[in-house]
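Let's practice the habit of predicting before peeking. Look at the sequence and jot down your guess about where helices and strands might fall. Then scroll down.
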Amino acid sequence: MKNFCCSQSEKTVINILTKQPDMPETANAKEWEINYENLINSFLAEQSVSNPVLKDVDISFSFYEYLPMKENGGSVYFGYLYEISPDLDDGIYDMMILDDRILFSEMAFMESDLVEVYFYHRLPSIEIFHPLSEYVKKEELSFNDERTLRDGIYEGTIYGLPYEFDFNVLYYDDQNVDSNNMIKNMKDMTWDDLLTSIKSSTPNTQSIGLGDDNNLLDLLMEYASSRYQLTKEYDPLYYEIFYNKTGEEFFSSFYNFMINYTNGDVNESIRITLDDAFADFKEKESMFFKGKASHCNIIRSEMANTNSTFSYTLPPKYKTSVIEKFLAVNTNSKLDKNLLAEVALALTSKQAQLLRANKFGAIPTFDLTKKDSIPEIKTYCTNQPYICDIIEKMDRVYIKDILKNEKSSPFVEIESFLPRMIRSYLTNNDIDQVVFAFKNIFTLLTDDLGIFKILSYIIIIAFSLFFLIIIFLIYKHKEHPYLKVVSPIFCIMIIIGTTMNMYKHLQYLPPYSIFMAKFWFIFETVTTNLIYVPMFAVTYRIYRIFKTNLFMTNTLDNKRLFIGISSIILIVIAYRAYIVSIVSFYYLPFGSLRFTRFPEAIYSGGGTLDNLYIIYLYGIFIALLFMMINTGRISKKFGDISYIFVIFILNIGDFIVSRLLEKLSHINYPRYFFLIMLFNCLVSFFCIYLLIGSRLLLILMFPEYINVNSIIKSSDLKDFIPLTSSKKYNKLLKKFKENLPLSFKSKKSSSNDKLSYISKPYNVSSSSNKSYAIYTSANSGLNFGLNSGLNSANSGLNSTNSGLNLSNSKLNSGFKNSNNDSLFQTQNNISSMTNSLNHNRMPPNSQYSDLSTSPRSIINPSSFNDNNSSPNYNFAIQFLNKKYNGYNQEFNPNYVNSDYNFLNYNRFNNSERNN
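Done guessing? Here is the structure:
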């Protein structure tokens, strides 16, 4: 970096980028550029007397050849920005003179990815240009027009110093009587009125230079402003005139105006340069020349060689498009920023602006209301009274303001594409195309859905209410084994997350705000974690149940898992809330001005924090996948576990919904939106069915089959996992029918048939063991199976209908309810459930309390006789007395160890053999 306090021979060269004059042929651009650079350097040399910092500074201007129109019809404006962006990033230019249609042109609530993709910055105006507020106070710039000064400031920080001002005028031959008559009424005329007056005066084709994108937009907006009030103060929805029924009338009128103004040669006019248009005016082939006020000196020099004199006036209704120019400092410059700030202040000072106005006809950015208090402004208005007069009279048209609302595309995108669309319309007269283009500027694809928006809300709310009913039923039957095995509380959490997942697509509907973007960000975090984390817990629990022989089962407690996953979810939500507090949210619609724009909110600045969250989600997903694969392999013996597909289906459904919402045609889009929301609701319904639906239906269809007050260990829960296979589902129902209460079965059925499905621990039909009528089923927490056993004297199980009286050597077994019409069910394979003994009786208020409370009362003693004769209970007592005579208390029949299972026939047979 060069030091700006250096020797005379080592001057600091500051490179400034700007556009060449927009009338390069008429102005003799090369000569003009040399004179301009020499004038600026001379001025700085003079200023260095009072400001030594400027003493060894040399200014070198780079004038960009800003051609009016590319040969292929592409945007010159876009090409200019695309070409200079790398040079600014590399610090080749230290400063830049740019107008208001470039500075902050990317700033919009709804941003465009065009900026970052092609210009390598999301917000180049504040990322490329250096903030100047630390070098200059706003009060020092108070001599500038207030609006111009404000347009160089973003969020209170100065990025551009007011440099020059300009506006559109109509030049005319002041010796032409017809022209003078028109000028007198110009304030009250519209462009159509002016055209009528011109046609009545001359049949010549009127030339107008519209090859420059800015000039074309200026004419269109000035034409519209002369017909309508395009201000928010007059009508907050003023922009709708461009695409409602009035819009069709407006564009038809503009098309007819252009055809008549150019005598049908509109294709030529939309491509000619200002130099060509001025040449026609000079040859008196065109009554008016539409140019800039700053062209006055150039035109005066050219007209001096003719016998004609000229003057200029404001356009019809005095509506004129204005251009503000600013001087900005490049952040990437290698030079000292203090030096650059000093030079920038010098070049935008009152003295510098006054000098350029006198030498080159530039229009200063002065606040003319202060001409009596600021000598430089008073001097300018004394020398240029006519310009000061029309500046005070004109009705300024700010193009960026007209083409902007809270949902509009950024101006850089508008300027890049809209002029081409207007030219296409003027060539092909395709009014639908241009109306669509303007509608797409101001609206989003999801803005106007009409009745289908209401229907979408209704369908989502209806499904939500239905899901709430499902949650209620799950909670009501949470102790049921076929629900308990999949952890009802976690299923409820998953259903809540799935329900919320239906709502997240409503974020694409208005209203749009940064607050709403942050809200939906947290909402999606809650939704995702309410699905993923509880699903992980459910899968983990089932996985552990299948692995019960390898793992301790006390960690399967729902309460512990619930506390764990709730803590995880809260921690993740807090983590994401922290991200919200430090990142920058903004809307970046999917699509562009040429098609449709679909609103999407994203954020920048998350970096590593966001990556950690993604790793966390991938970790859960991989763990789920691992457990699903292993559980799926084991579950082939027990049935399908379709719940594992819920996450996959939801993710695929979300992907399909998002892509359809983004890419479907705007034609009939409201109807499409409703159908997509319906599809999303059905996907959620299907996922909930896979998760819990078949189990819940089974419980609702057969509520009387299962006693929910018993206790089942985890090793038994694996038998309640499968349900979904239709073959196995039907088999299960068949098993239920086989296990129906005796009153439901045929009275002709033999007692042997009633227990034929029970897997016996040993041969109970043998003559040696036929009196042993004491069986115990697995300790099923859901009382699903045969419950029998022996009770000690201290913990006997008594029933009003049945009981076991060991002291009287009598075994009474009976089972009936008040209606005498039901029995408890028996598990299909009792040998797999012989690990525990049930010592609990049902509470009086149980929904099954009308049944016999004796778990042994379901045994039909007659089934133990080969000849179906009456049972001999005394023999059983003799057998027991013989069997346990001489044993210690532990093996006494009046003592029952709660950890000992009398159906452990291996031990029993060993004892038999020992005896």
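How did you do? The two ends are 106 Å apart (CA to CA).
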